Structures are given as structure tokens and as C-alpha cells.
């Protein structure tokens, strides 16, 4: 039996713990090696403090981010807090390695450090516990090396520049949390809406983002879904989205045509069967169907169908993907689909794609 996976702590919890340790050093001269903080949803946890520096007017403490067994890119990053006394309230801002928000639509206003509301509340609560009533403080959260780490996150897409975000709604990182990853994708939708887009482009990954750029689609309207196409369609349906263009590699979007909305291969894979079925409906002979059913990759279908004059099968698959997606969200908005091969060749699209892409100003002419 596999050992139970180990939980870890969010950057928000680490920041709150570092801020508390720095406040203890400032107010009491205490060098804490561990601090206990409250979690947003109840309960308390104790985190190790890796370093405390005591100054006359400002103290600094550091906590090493421990993500447990979750493959979090911020695992091992130092989260630091500098605390100094000041008149008034507790003011929280970001230092080196913590990003700055430059685009609207996120939980933090433009121009502020990317420290989300729940972590801010956690930091303020822990510092207030040490200070007591009536005293204010300036708290600067930093993350040395955070700018390099942020390049591996969604921050560049979201317009968060200069570093990581301080995140976490529960304070605890659950190992291999698919739900947490899915939630991290949703702010793209809110940001696109805040920038005035009601027609969005949903694409599974970076290849699709690059393809959207080649087509001249506005970058701010492009939303990465990873394998969570269905979940992201549902998120769109809960917001004032008017239309969605599904744009992606044929291997992903053929699955949507089959009604598969979580496209991770090990969960469900009906690419061969779906392409073969639609080819059969177009009158493909038996040897073509057999070739489709034994192909190693979905891209092989492009040449197989082209060689027998059945390339339009991909147009029917695109239309099927749009119908399935529209049904999935109970026709809350229009859907169009455009799919391409790894070579970059556009192989399938429907009328919905033509209309929505045109409204978004893409710079191509479809045959």
C-alpha cells in the first residue's frame, strides 16, 4: 500500500507565519523557531521558521514553503516578512519576488501587490494578535527568486508581473490537488470579462495560445483550460459570456465531439472510434476505417482522410464538438470549434467558429 500523501502549506500560510514571527521579534525580541497560526476554515497549524533577523525598528522572518507531496513550483521557495511599527492600521504590501497586478478582473486591484484577500486577512490577524489593539504596522512580504518561479505559473498570462502571487483560501495544500489547479485557471475568465470581452477563446494549452496569436485573436480573450474543458465551460456559463470559440489540437477536441469534457488521456480516450465513426458516416470504405482504428496518433487521421477525399470529416467533428459543448452548458451561449493538426494546419471548423472568430477580429480567411 502506498504511504499517505503529505499535505503542505499555501504561500498565504507561510506569509502569515513569517509575519507573526517577525512581529514577535519586533515587539518582544523573541526569536521563534516555530509559530502557530489560525487557518481560514478553522483549526491551527504550526510552521517552522527558518530565519529571524532582529533590527531596531524593523524585524524580518523567513519560512520555507513546504508544499508537501504536491508538485507545486513554489515548493522550497523562501517566503519572508518584514514588520515595522507605524501609526494607524496594519498595511500589507509586496516586496521583491511578489508580483504586482497590472490588469483588472482579479481579486486584487490593479497596482497592488498580488497578495490575495484571504492571505491578507491571515497576515493581518496574526500580526494583530502580537501587536494587540491600538498599534499599526507595515508588513512587507517578499519571495526571493519569485520572479523566476512565476514564469512557470499563470501569472504572466494574468498580467501579474515581477513575481509570484501569495495565495490560498484554506491555508493547506492538498497533494496532487486537481481541484486547486482547476481553480487557478478560472481568473482568466474574470479578467477577460473585466477587459470587456464577452466572446472568449478556450484552448487546452500553450499550443492553442500560440495558434490564437497566429490567427490574430486578442490575447486577453484567450483562456487556457488544460484538460478541464467542461469545468471551464461551466465557469463561463455562470458569467455573462456570450460566445465561446473552442480552439485546439484535433486530439483534444475530437474528444469533446464524443462528449468527453475532461480530456486527460488516462481517464477517457475515444479519438480513434470517434474519427472512424464520423468517417463511416461520410461513406469511408472498410480499409479506411481499419486504418483509423489502428493509428497511433490522431494526427495520422489527417493524411488518411485526405488521401481518400474525406478531409471534411473534421468539419463535421468540429460541428459535433460545438453541439456537445452547447448542450453541456444548456445553451447558455453560442459555441464554435476550430481544430488544427500538430503541423499547424487548420483541419476542421464550423460556422460558429467562422462567426465568433470574425467577431473577435481574427485575420484569416477560411475556405
TrEMBL record:
Q: What is its EC number?
A: 2.1.1.195
Cite the InterPro entries for this sequence. Answer: CbiD, CbiD_sf
Quote the Pfam families the UniProt record gives: CbiD
What reactions does this protein catalyze?
Co-precorrin-5B + S-adenosyl-L-methionine = Co-precorrin-6A + S-adenosyl-L-homocysteine
Which principal EC class is assigned to this enzyme? Answer: transferase
Which pathway does the protein contribute to? Cofactor biosynthesis; adenosylcobalamin biosynthesis; cob(II)yrinate a,c-diamide from sirohydrochlorin (anaerobic route): step 6/10
Q: Name one GO biological process term.
A: methylation
Record's protein name: Cobalt-precorrin-5B C(1)-methyltransferase
From which lineage does this chain's organism come? Bacteria, Bacillati, Bacillota, Clostridia, Eubacteriales
Protein's gene: cbiD
Amino acid at each position: 500500500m502506498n504511504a499517505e500523501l503529505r499535505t503542505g502549506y499555501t504561500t498565504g500560510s507561510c506569509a502569515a507565519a513569517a509575519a507573526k514571527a517577525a512581529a514577535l521579534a519586533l515587539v518582544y525580541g523573541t526569536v521563534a523557531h516555530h509559530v502557530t497560526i489560525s487557518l481560514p476554515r478553522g483549526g491551527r497549524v504550526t510552521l517552522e521558521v527558518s530565519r529571524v533577523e532582529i533590527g531596531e525598528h524593523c524585524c524580518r522572518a523567513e519560512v520555507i514553503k513546504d508544499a508537501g507531496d504536491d508538485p507545486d513550483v513554489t515548493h522550497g521557495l523562501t517566503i519572508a516578512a518584514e514588520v515595522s511599527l507605524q501609526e494607524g492600521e496594519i498595511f500589507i504590501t509586496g516586496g521583491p519576488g511578489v508580483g504586482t497586478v497590472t490588469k483588472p478582473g482579479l481579486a486584487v486591484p490593479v497596482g497592488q501587490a498580488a497578495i490575495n484577500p484571504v492571505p491578507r486577512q491571515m497576515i493581518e490577524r496574526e500580526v494583530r494578535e502580537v501587536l494587540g489593539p491600538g498599534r499599526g504596522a507595515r508588513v512587507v512580504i517578499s519571495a526571493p527568486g519569485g520572479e523566476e518561479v512565476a514564469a512557470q505559473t499563470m501569472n504572466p498570462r494574468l498580467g501579474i508581473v515581477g513575481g509570484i502571487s501569495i495565495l490560498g483560501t484554506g491555508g493547506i495544500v492538498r497533494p496532487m490537488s486537481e481541484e486547486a489547479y482547476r481553480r487557478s485557471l478560472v481568473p482568466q475568465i474574470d479578467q477577460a470579462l473585466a477587459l470587456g470581452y464577452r466572446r472568449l477563446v478556450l484552448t487546452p494549452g500553450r499550443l492553442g495560445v500560440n495558434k490564437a496569436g497566429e490567427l490574430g485573436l486578442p490575447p486577453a480573450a484567450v483562456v487556457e483550460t488544460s484538460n478541464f474543458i467542461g469545468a471551464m465551460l461551466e465557469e463561463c456559463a455562470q458569467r455573462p459570456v456570450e460566445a465561446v470559440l473552442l480552439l485546439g489540437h484535433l486530439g483534444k477536441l475530437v474528444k469533446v465531439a464524443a462528449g468527453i469534457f475532461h480530456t486527460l488521456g488516462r481517464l477517457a480516450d475515444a479519438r480513434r472510434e470517434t474519427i472512424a465513426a464520423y468517417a463511416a458516416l461520410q461513406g469511408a470504405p472498410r480499409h479506411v476505417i481499419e486504418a483509423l482504428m489502428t493509428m497511433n496518433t490522431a494526427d495520422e487521421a489527417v493524411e488518411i482522410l485526405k488521401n481518400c477525399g474525406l478531409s471534411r470529416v473534421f468539419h463535421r467533428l468540429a460541428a459535433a464538438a460545438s453541439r456537445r459543448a452547447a448542450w453541456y452548458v444548456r445553451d447558455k451561449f453560442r459555441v464554435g470549434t476550430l481544430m488544427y493538426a500538430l503541423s499547424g494546419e487548420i483541419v476542421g471548423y464550423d460556422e460558429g467558429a467562422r462567426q465568433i472568430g470574425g467577431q473577435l477580429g481574427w485575420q484569416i480567411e477560411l475556405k
